[in-house]
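Lab notebook, bench 4. The sequencing result for the construct came back, and we need a structural model before the next group meeting so we can plan mutations. Quick request posted to the team channel:

Model the 3D structure of this chain.
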Amino acid sequence: MSRLSQSTLGFFGISSQFHELPLRFRTALSQAPLVIVVGVISAVAAWQLPEVFERQEFVAGLIMLVLVTAACIAIPWNRLWYPSYWIIPLLDFVAIAMLHHGSTGILTGLSLLHVFPVFWMSWSRVSPVAARALSLFCPLLSVWHPFILGGSGPFDGADLAAPLLVPLVSFGVAVTVSVLREDIRSQRETLENKDRLLEAALAESKRRSQQLDGVLNAIDVGVLLVDEDGLPRHMNSRQRLLQERALPAGTVDPHERDLLLYTLDRTTPVPDDQRPVARALQGSDFRDVQLWLGPPGAQVALNTSGAVLRTDDGGFNGAVLVFSDVTALVGALAAKDDFVASVSHELRTPLTSIMGYLELALDEAEDSQLQGGIPGSLRIALRNSERLLRLVSDLLTAASGTVHLETRPVCLAELIRSSLGTAETKAREAGVVLVDDTPADLPLTADPHRITQVLDNLLSNAVKYSPDGGTVTVSAWREGGSAVFRVADTGMGMSADDVEDVFEKFFRAGTVRLAGIPGVGLGMAITKDIVEAHGGSIRVESAQGRGTAFTVELPAGA
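Done. Here's the predicted structure in token form:
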């Protein structure tokens, strides 16, 4: 069918694709451009050159074109052999020949009408070779038919060569159109293949997206994807529920700053720049950040983490945030701490009473100068009672989660020397040498009892975890506006995994458990709380079999 018919579709207001129309309709539309042009020429001729209608051949050409067009519309081409509709353009050549020679001397240029059937056949899918051949020979016969019929008198080679331009141009048009059609057909097939691949890819992408949505909606964790501007692009059903819970009533078009998010005290709103999405937009990952979500009285505890997404060139490309509801876990931990505090408090009173009576009994035994093992047994009972009381005190401190300070100017060097003196007896019994590497004076503003507790914990551990003897060195120095001290031993040390958990409550290293060294794992957690309550920091360096070193840095004017 003719490419020209595509524009004819638009002329008649038809929006369907040409190749989707029935063959009968396509044939009529392909014939339409020739009919329209001949109709316009006839109208102009009737107005300006009416004498042309006095020529029988011209009128016969018009009648033949009308009959061919009527046959084009009336014949059900879709029921016939597909190439049979070519009879229409072939008959058009005959009608054009009659119009051309019937108007000789009156109308000029009608031989150009050969382009319409040439274009039609060349664009069709029947046979490009046949179309090119007919596009040459049919116009040739058309321009030579006066000589063939013998009605033009004698003729020579010059007479035959003069009209050859029309068939040659028609042949060139046929070749150009058929090549163009093949190129367009190839491009269309390529586009159709790409369309099929794209549709398959889109279907697969949709299927995978549905699977991902199913997985995300099945987990009991809120998942939020934000773009580079912090705008939400995807969230699972759990996250939608959490967001609805965090929105104040009547909020329209909410922003993260509108959400009811609180710090650990459950009353202070989380600052805008510390909220999960805002932190992710700063371009850094974060993990295990706890906050409270929702209105007071109906809050849930969330553990939040965020991972930044990067482009191929390392640019920021959004982030994925995960929100885990840890309300039950926080409640369980609080219940555990309450239980530990309650039990420890109940144990403390009778222990204090037992220790008092043991001290009285020991005083009476010494005053009476009792012989035998009674005084020694009383001393052992008193020592173990003191140990049990320290354990109860540690449990109470750990359960409370807060450290109360009474700060005043002190000398850190004197506190270190006092703690070294306290640890001397146990160190001697364990074969451990204590080394004091501190200056004569190192002023500090701190709670002396709490700092002594830190020193005692570190020295006690250093001695305890050096079962084969060794050296424990305590050094201290001034560093800028901070006072720093370090307790280093040459004992059994810890693995890299143990170092990461050393400040957790109730944590005990694997080597310590295997060695059967007593303890409950609260000393380092309490030590860290005390140091941080002073605004300081503590770090640990350790290698298994080579010893451990704890370094504490405290602001001198805390």
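The two ends are 93 Å apart (CA to CA).
Will bring this to the meeting.
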